[in-house]
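Per reviewer request, we include the raw input and output of the structure prediction for the construct analysed in the revised manuscript.
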Amino acid sequence: MDTPVRRTLSHLVGWAADRRVPGPLRAPLYGAYARLTGADLTEARPPLAAYPSLSAFFVRRLRDGARPICAEAGLLPSPVDGTLQSLESISEESLLEAKGRSYDVRDLLAGVGADVALEGGCAWTIYLSPRDYHRIHSPESGLLREARWVPGTRYPVAPRVLARRRVLSINERVALRLETSRGPLLMVLVGALNVGRVRVVGVEPGHAGALEPPPSFERGAELARFELGSTVVLIAPPGLLRPVAGLAPGAAARVGEPIGEYA
């Protein structure tokens, strides 16, 4: 369970990350962060000195054209950069996570998409490390019908932690329902240790329920962002999508590159 110490530490880290960095120190600080984490600064929209805080740098935008979105209508592009942790067929409404940990999909979704049949559907779980680009893009054009912020703990979501405890269903998270012309897509955006904030474009933080009117998103448009720490679970109902050939846990995912194929 969460503890006052863990939550206090998270708030302190968030406070520090939000502090304004003096202009001359920005490029050296972000360069040191990149060397420590492996982040690719050549993709960041310049100049580095334009990012006023570590939080702003963490959610940095990329240069135009850095993430071309797959235009083939029969393929579904990845919504995020990261590492594929699991790729599962939903059985008895559970999905298998790292190291054999089992999660009930309905618990993860916290009521979002309650009317959507999931048995036999497909779930992609993608882990975003500190080096990754942390903005989330819409995998398909559609209307965002539901959004629900779910309070919880702030455990790390690194693979070694997922191997020891069930994290995805107890951490703070946001569940979304995107209604597309081909069917609903469900997403769970899981926060993590430290800041753990999740922002959804056009939706007030803390919202829980239907969105009226529902905001629309084009395929590849920015949908949300993480502010330190994150995992995304993308869920498709049965008969809608299957993984692209050759995709397996451990594979790198990049925004816009295909991870699913319409059935």
